[in-house]
Amino acid sequence: MVITEHKPFEEILEMLKDSQSIFITGCSLCATSCFTGGEAQVLEMKEKLEKEGKTVTGYAILDPSCNKLQVRATLKKQKEAVDAADAILCMACGDGAQTVAAVVDDKPVFPANNTMFIGEIERVGHFVEACKACGQCELGWTAGICPITKCAKGLMNGPCGGSKNGKCEVNPENDCAWVLIYERLEKLGKLDKMLELKPPKDHSKAYNPRKIVVKK
Amino acid sequence: MGLLEEKLKSGEFVVTAEMAPPKGIDMTHFKECAKAVKGRVAGVNVTDFQSAVVRVSSLGAAVILLEEGLEPIMQITGRDRNRIAIQGELLAAGALGIKNVLALTGDHPMFGDQPGAKPVYDCDSVNILMIASKLMEGQDWAGNQLNKAPEFFLGASVTPLFDPLEAQIIKMKKKMQAGAKFFQTQAVYDIEVLRKFREATKDLNAKVLVGVIPLKSPGMANYMNKNVPGIHVPDALIERLKGAENKVKEGLKIAAEFINQVKEEKLCDGVHIMAIGAEENVPILLDMCNL
């Protein structure tokens, strides 16, 4: 899932300072789970903007905001409200905001959220980063723990000297990924995997922007 | 062959010292400290933006040491450079006559004075060693020919106080496989930690210089215990410092006793002194242990 956070409201107001009427879009998937773009948050945003003297011409919870055809179809149904707006405020991830901007290309589209990371839901409202989308998954030899994401330095050959009591030097609340990898490889009887010399990672698969076509 | 390599091969008890390049271009103090240890150490480590703080670069400071007639050990980290910059830096070092290179991963930028910097870490310490070894074979990392290969004596670091120690030793073995011929350790204060580490690594054919940081005050010891991973100053030493009239002198005495113990028990191939801003004390410490 793509994890998002609300931008500070002051920053949103600053972006909207030249726009009087606003159309708000939310997202039914990730942003709903992150409480950053579900219906409740969109209505809350509407109220806050109206309190600031703005007109909200309408809103839509896109299903989801990253599906271009869906976005186009949904916004078409609300053409009048969209046309009446000076700007669109998008409560989704950066991808969702760009999809909306591509569909509504004659109006400014502003992001209400900061896109943080790809992660998992530990429990409701608790998210942890799990994947850097590096393009070359390493989990097969690391006992299922990602050193690219879970090690603050993305090391490929074992722990740095900064690990203390099994915790990371950069943030002692985080476990040292390499201590975890060591412990799990040992448990699995696969410590030899850690002894393999790993060359510098091939980053060419992460050159952006990337594009994949799986269906002609 | 450089002095460091020669001395380590001869089996002599080797001394290296660490010097941080200054923040700013006045090299007077740096040169004075270098002169004070000239002829008394096999090599001087030049730190590479130590603690992720902007300073004169390690390559630049290493060249100044060469001009002063000392043998630099150029530290190089993967924090600030990708593999292209690392190779260029190593080739420059080779062209300028630098013989010793110590490969490190590098402290994270968040510890330094530019915490918003984008960390690179394209290469970890093992990767830097692999790349340096490849350059020494006359090829860059991608396999392109060099017009002349550099010759380096490659080193790396190891932390004897690490839990689980086996994870550090696995990495130490990889560093050796990647070309490391010598190791300098994080500072050790408890001789028992060193004994355990040497016992665990006795079958490795590695030259190890144990790290020594002379204590300057009980506050410094407490700070390191709290903030510096891999360093633990035992309570007894902190009490000794507290009771001492001249704390700096007592710290040097503690360091001298430790070095003498290491020599006596032949626990290491030498000692690496990191004075951290008090480089002028290095010759005093060397006098105290007849080195």
UniProtKB/TrEMBL annotation, chain A:
* Domain Methylene-tetrahydrofolate reductase C-terminal-like residue range list: 110-203
- Name the Pfam families for this protein: DUF5981
Q: Which InterPro entries match?
A: DUF5981 (IPR022026)
Tree of life domain: Bacteria
Record's protein name: 5,10-methylene-tetrahydrofolate reductase subunit MetV
Name the source organism: Thermoanaerobacter kivui
Upper lineage is:
Bacteria, Bacillati, Bacillota, Clostridia, Thermoanaerobacterales
Automatic annotation (TrEMBL), chain B:
Q: Which UniProt keywords apply?
A: FAD, Flavoprotein, Oxidoreductase
On the tree of life, the source organism's domain of life is: Bacteria
Q: Which reaction does it catalyse?
A: (6S)-5-methyl-5,6,7,8-tetrahydrofolate + NAD(+) = (6R)-5,10-methylene-5,6,7,8-tetrahydrofolate + NADH + H(+)
Molecular function as annotated in GO: FAD binding; methylenetetrahydrofolate reductase (NADH) activity
Output the GO biological process annotations, alphabetical, semicolon-separated.
methionine biosynthetic process; tetrahydrofolate interconversion
Which Gene3D superfamilies does this chain map to?
Answer: 3.20.20.220
Checking Pfam families in the record gives: MTHFR
- Which InterPro entries does this entry report, sorted A to Z? FAD-linked_oxidoreductase-like (IPR029041), Mehydrof_redctse-like (IPR003171)
Q: Name one GO cellular component term.
A: cytosol
* Record has Cell membrane as a keyword: no
Kindly tell me the pathway this chain contributes to.
One-carbon metabolism; tetrahydrofolate interconversion
Cofactors needed by this protein, per the record, are: FAD
Family, per the entry?
A: Belongs to the methylenetetrahydrofolate reductase family.
What name appears for this protein in its UniProt entry? Methylenetetrahydrofolate reductase
Instruction: Please give the organism.
Output: Thermoanaerobacter kivui
- The record's gene field reads metF
